[in-house]
Structures are given as C-alpha cells and as structure tokens.
Amino acid sequence: MQIRKLFAVSAIFFCALAPKAQAADTDNLFIAGAAIHNELRKDYYVGVLLTGNTGASADELLNSDLAHRLDMLITHKSLSSRRFASVWSTRIAINNMAYTDQLTAMADDVIAFTSVVKDRVFQGDRVSIANSPEADALIVSINGVELQRFDRSLYPMLLRAWIGSTPPSTEYKQGILSKGDIAPALVDQINNWSVSGEQVARIEAWKGPTPEEIAALEAQQKAEEEAEAQRLAKLEADAKKKEAARIAAAKEKARKAAAAKAAAAQLLLAEEEEDEDLLDAADEFAAQLYRSQLLKWTYKYVRYPKRALERDQEGTVVYEVTIDRDGNVIKADEKAASEHSTLNSETGRAIERAEPYPAMPADVKGEQFTFEMPIKFTIPD
C-alpha cells in the first residue's frame, strides 16, 4: 500500500516535470509501467508507458483510443541511428507476424519511424512517442522537439514491440505492464529526468533552418547584393577607377560561382547519402519481412513433446539458424536453452523438419541469411 501511495504522488509529479509535448492530451498522463532494457549486463534505456488509466490490461492498451505515450530514457552513453533502427525494426517485425498485411501496408511508415534518429542519441536524451487523439496523430519527438507525425494506427505495432509475444525480455514486458506497481527508485529516476537546452538545440539542428530564418537570410543576402551594386555603380562613375571596379566585379563573380559550385557539390553529396540511408532502411525491412516468414514457417513444424505436456513443462528455446539462398540449413546453434531437455531437443528437430526453408527473396542480399529462432512452449489454460 505504501508503494502504491508513493507511486500516485510520483506519477503526478512526473507529469509536471515532463517536457512540453506536441499535444496537451499527452502531457498529463500517469506512469502505468516502466522497465530497464539491458544487454550483456549493460543498461541501454528506461522504457516508460504513460496512460490515463494505470490499471489497463495489455489488450485494453492495444485497443484503446485514449491518449498514451511511450518514452525511452537513454541511459547508455549513446545509440547510433543504425542501432536505433535495428532495435525497433526487429521487434516490430517479430511481434507483428499475425498482422503481416498491416505491416506490409505501413512499410513506409515503419521505415520512416525507424529512421527518425538522424545522427545518434546520447545518455540523458528522451525519445517520446505520443499517441494523441487531440492531434489525431502519432507524434515522435526527442527532447521535446517534434520530428515527425504518423497515422495513429502505427501505435499498436510499436507497443507490441514492447509487450508482444517476443518482448526485449520477460522482465521488461512485466515492468511495462505492471499497472503502476513500480519500484520507488525507478520512479525517482524517471521523475528526476530532465533535458538541457544544449540537448534540445542538438535535436533542433536536425531540422535545419526554419522558414523565418531562411527569409531573414534571404533578406540579408538581398541587402548585401544591393549594397554591392551601389558600390560598383560609384566605381563605374569614376573613370579613373573603372578598371579597378571591373576587376573587383570579376573577382566577386568568380567567388560566387565557386561558392555555388561548392554548394551544389555539397547538396549532391547530401542527396547521395540520404539515398544510401533510405536503401539501407529498405534492405533492413525486406530482411525483417523474410525473417517473419521463416519464423512462421518453422512454427508449423513445432510439436509439443508428449512427455513435456504430461509433466507441465514450459519454457523458451532460442536457436540461431543460417541458411543458403535455396533455404538449406548450413548450421543451427542453440543460443538459449530452457531448463527442460525435451523442449530443447524438440526445437532442434522442428528446425530439421522445416528444412528446406523458403528460398531467399531477390531483395534480400547475400549468399547466406542468419536469423534468430525463438520458440516458446506454453501449455494452454
């Protein structure tokens, strides 16, 4: 009871400290769940779910039309744009296998979302995903700076990445769905989270100059050009300085031409880099769709061992499988075993029965393809 009382006070306090969102209905929310994501004993970020109803179940959260927000509070020293995209695209694909048509239809939005980080995010940054009925949009911001808006139908796909059948970890999913029963130390860490003006400015720089700033620069450039024209007119009126004026004008013309050429080259380079980033994102998404197909293919060959059923044995087994372009298995290594040997053995046999796998699509590159195969054995109630 004391923990819940502390949570109620802390949740309200968190709303007051949260950075200004892009829609008011996602400002005044309460902490419904929170969890720390770590890999190899390193904390990467704190995931926070904020809602107006802290007692909602997973199904209610996924089907709710009310305001929600997901926050990622970065605790690792930094995450590159490629790592951010990989973390999200993998979880989105694995946890939305039952919604393949929707996933395919929203492929462009998924790629755009996973590409929202333009450089990298650093320790202390806050990534917010606000599902706002008021704005009728899913608003993605970093450190309070709005970066992009999406259709709200993308939100359940993102939420499943955290609370779906294959979350970052079982403990992470339990923390997000804790219904407000959060350790006081973690609540304090969330409440005390703040971003500096320098952090905000760094993200603002991703957006480039505003229309007002561009207009001011153009006005300044026009004023400078007019002043130069007046200076040249005076020089031309002076016969003795006519030659000097001609040379100055020639030099100025050459300088502007060189600057224009350099600017054009820089713009071309930026466009090439953007095209490369988009291609990388498209390749990654094609690989994730193929990975989803392989997982569904394998699950058709999984059989619950009779001995395990009789003994009420449950667990999760993870294999790393490598196949060639024709779908033949090159190797299959057990990465994480359950505590029951019958379940571990059945996973290996299921992979053998599933061979050959569907051939690699043309848009998936490489002579081999390696994917992670998690199989969860659960006895229905």
Number-wise, the strands total: 11
> Strand percentage, roughly?
15-25%
Give the strand order, joined by hyphens, for the main sheet.
1-2-3-6-7-8
Q: List unreliable stretches of 5+ residues.
A: 1-21
Give the biggest sheet. 6 strands, antiparallel
Radius of gyration, whole Å:
28 Å
Tally the helices: what do you get? 13
Secondary structure class reads alpha+beta
Distance between the termini: 31 Å
The domain count comes to 3
Describe the structure.
The chain is an alpha+beta fold and about 375 residues long. The chain has 3 domains: about 1-205, 3-Layer(bba) Sandwich (Chalcone isomerase); about 210-280; about 285-375, Fusion Protein Consisting Of Minor Coat Protein, Glycine Rich Linker, Tola, And A His Tag, Chain: A, Domain 2 (2-Layer Sandwich), CATH 3.30.1150. The protein is about 50% helix and about 20% strand. It is built from 13 helices and 11 strands. The longest helix is centred in the last third of the chain and has 58 residues, at about 240-300. The model is unreliable at about 1-20 (pLDDT under 50).
What attributes does this structure have?
alpha+beta; Chalcone isomerase; 381 residues; 6-stranded antiparallel beta sheet; 3-stranded antiparallel beta sheet; Fusion Protein Consisting Of Minor Coat Protein, Glycine Rich Linker, Tola, And A His Tag, Chain: A, Domain 2; disordered N terminus; 21% strand; 3 domains
Write the layout of secondary structure elements.
Elements: H1 2-17, E1 30-39, E2 42-51, H2 58-63, E3 68-74, E4 78-80, H3 81-95, H4 100-105, H5 107-114, E5 120-122, E6 126-132, E7 137-142, E8 145-150, H6 155-163, H7 170-176, H8 184-191, H9 197-204, H10 211-237, H11 242-299, H12 306-310, E9 315-324, E10 329-336, H13 341-354, E11 368-377
